[in-house]
Design brief:
This protein is mainly α and about 130 residues long. It has helices at about 5-55, 65-115. About 80% of the residues lie in helices and about 0% in strands. Helix 1 (about 5-55) runs antiparallel to helix 2 (about 65-115). It is rod-shaped.
């Protein structure tokens, strides 16, 4: 069995793992971008209004409480979106780890198959760990 066949097998599995990782990274980046896009304009407006009032030395008008409530609501939106992003990240990382483990198993078996002479016959039986869902 040639080394080039083994190297080709290894490269194939590395490419598959990199593809899965790129897919997950893209999904996480999209979720983060959507969060920032929703939040940042609201925060910028509220912070500018507060800064303008403070810079001019004006007394705090009655509607300041309204602005404060809006700021708190925005913070709540931020927290909710970050929680959603974290949950997505947790799920995606778990899926990527599972895929990586599967690809590692497949890669190992394929590498052994690639290295054995054609006349040698053998097989491996995979048993799932008892703690796997």
């Amino acid at each position: 069995m040639s080394i080039s066949r083994l190297q080709s097998t290894i490269a194939q599995y590395r490419k598959q793992l990199a593809s899965h990782e790129a897919t997950v990274t893209h999904a996480l980046n999209q979720a983060h971008a959507a969060t920032v896009t929703k939040i940042q304009p609201k925060l910028n407006t509220l912070y500018q209004q507060i800064a303008d009032k403070q810079a001019s030395g004006e007394p705090v008008p009655p509607h300041f409480l309204y602005e404060q409530n809006r700021l708190q609501a925005t913070k709540d939106v931020i927290s909710g979106n970050i929680d959603e992003f974290g949950a997505l990240a947790h799920t995606q990382v778990g899926q990527l780890q599972h895929t990586g483990a599967q690809l590692g198993l497949q890669s190992g078996q394929a590498q052994l198959q690639a290295m054995k002479p054609p006349t040698v016959k053998f097989s491996f039986h995979h048993r799932k760990p008892s703690n796997e869902l």
